[in-house]
Design goal:
- The chain is an alpha/beta fold and about 475 residues long.
- It has three domains: about 250 residues, 3-Layer(aba) Sandwich (Beta-lactamase), CATH 3.40.710.10; about 120 residues, 3-Layer(bba) Sandwich (D-tyrosyl-trna(Tyr) Deacylase, Chain: A); about 80 residues, no CATH class.
- Helices cover about 30% and strands about 25% of the residues.
- α8 packs across α9.
């Protein structure tokens, strides 16, 4: 086994410690399905590595490529805009014509931001729209998106496809709360979209514990793209307390129409028209504009929370901001490759389809990810990038991990999870303040068993990497 380890180790790197390889074998994952690299952030060669050049499916760890490229190419303060144009005559608050909304790919238009946008329309004198809502989504040219294609779960928010006019992640939050006074269950929907019918006959169960509450709720969702319905007819255990259930319903245009109707009316306006695609007028100042938060804020959600549709929006923006419109995934991939070549980090194995890692085709090597993390650590934008990563045992996708070791709070990590894939990459800061790069990817049918092994590698790096480096 030692001879095999030595043969596959990276040049100039020691073979992996037995304690590291052992945890993967103990998890039932063969080393032939694992790749990893550990090195000092300021070192050119790994401390040790295993299959570092092998192309692997990285899952959401691919978001590191998208977010670092975006910081470097767009700048930390880059902001998106969403514009509103009048297509008709505005007199005494009444628009005799259409309102045109043009999206430029903003990844994070929340309900609160949308309410602010509606308030600005009203503040600028728009009270009543006598025409239609026209959506200009032409900045992105995308292939047809089937939300069920990836894993047969079309209603999961992580399967929402990108759109130049993405609003509130095209998702709905259903809230559940026991109402002890009426022995019932209060069910509400946010946002309150008029195109989605909600019906609930949930019975409050005061005797059972909260188990698989979603199955017990007897949920039925019907999504016809232009309209949808949600019904809950089972039981809900009082022991569950308050719970949330996020579901992606409607297509993009009708979701935006629902958001506009609900919140423009809530702001005191009136709109009862239809929705359709179209183009914004050229060379005309917008009637109102919504500006996004800055990029450095956006990438925190992308990396800490592993938001797929936000990552895809950002990936497409790389092309939209630098290439002739419309942006396409292929154009964005080309932008990334040119940037990597300019930074002298060739990645011949790289396959990046949508920037989020939600793809069975994506490939990257552990060595390439380690070199990317080293580039980020030496960048003037190091702090913005590092602060976007989840902190061990503190927040994001690793909030519930590393509680039993002294690495808590001392590792900045991006995780990746798909069926057959577990991955982890980021920085570990040891007790002496030395910054270590850790990358590990598992591609195997039993990859789910490897989470403890990945965590053990992070803990080993915190505890032992410096001593191993001194003794080489």
């Amino acid at each position: 086994m030692l001879l095999a380890l030595c043969a596959c180790a990276a040049a100039h790197a020691a073979p992996p410690p037995r304690a590291v390889t052992r945890v993967f074998l103990d998890a039932g994952v063969p080393l032939s399905s694992v790749a990893f690299v550990v090195q000092r952030a300021d070192a050119g060669a790994p401390l040790f590595a295993w299959q570092p050049r092998r192309p692997m499916a990285p899952a959401s760890v691919m978001k590191l490529v998208t977010t670092l490229a975006s910081l470097e190419l767009l700048g930390r303060d880059y902001r998106w805009r969403t514009d509103a144009f009048l297509q008709g005559t505005l007199k005494d608050g009444v628009l005799d014509g259409n309102l045109v909304l043009k999206g430029h790919g903003d990844p994070k238009i929340t309900i609160e931001q949308w309410q602010s946008f509606m308030a600005s329309l009203r503040h600028n004198g728009l009270d009543d729209i006598r025409g239609d809502l026209v959506l200009d989504r032409s900045d992105f040219a995308l292939p047809p998106h089937d939300p069920a294609a990836f894993d047969g779960e079309p209603l999961k928010p992580y399967n929402v496809g990108p759109d130049a006019l993405l609003v509130n992640f095209k998702s709905v939050r259903f809230t559940f709360a026991p109402n002890a006074a009426s022995t019932a269950v209060d069910v509400a929907m946010e946002p309150p979209l008029p195109g989605i019918a909600l019906r609930s006959t949930l019975a409050l169960d005061t005797t059972s514990s909260c188990g698989d509450w979603r199955s017990d709720a007897g949920a039925a969702f019907v999504d016809q793209r232009t309209s949808a319905g949600a019904a809950f007819s089972g039981r809900y255990a009082q022991d569950c307390g308050a719970r949330d259930w996020y579901v992606a319903l409607l297509d993009h245009p009708h979701y935006v129409q629902g958001m506009f109707t609900a919140y423009f009316d809530a702001a005191g306006g009136h709109f009862a028209g239809a929705v359709r695609d179209g183009r914004a007028p050229a060379n005309v100042e917008p009637f109102a504009t919504l500006h996004s938060p800055p990029l450095y804020d956006i990438i925190r959600d992308i990396n800490k929370l592993s938001n797929n549709v936000m990552a895809s929006q950002l990936f497409l923006t790389l092309a939209a901001a630098s290439q002739p419109l419309p942006a396409t995934p292929a154009k964005s991939a080309a932008v990334v490759r040119r940037w990597l070549a300019r930074e002298k980090i060739p990645m011949p194995e790289l396959v990046i389809r949508n920037g989020s890692g939600l793809s069975r085709e994506d490939r990257i090597s552990a060595r390439s990810l380690a070199r990317l993390l080293a580039l980020a650590d030496a960048s003037p934008l190091r702090d913005e990038f590092a602060s976007s990563l989840a902190v061990a045992a503190i927040d994001g996708t690793v909030q519930q991990r590393f509680h039993n070791g002294d690495v808590a709070g001392q590792a900045l990590l991006k995780t990746g999870t798909l069926d057959g894939v577990r991955a982890l990459a980021g920085y570990v800061i040891d007790a002496q303040g030395t910054r270590w790069i850790v990358v590990a990817i598992v591609n195997h049918p039993h990859a789910a068993r490897a989470r403890a092994a990945l965590d053990a590698l992070v803990q080993w790096t915190y505890t032992n990497a410096a001593a191993m480096a001194r003794n080489r």
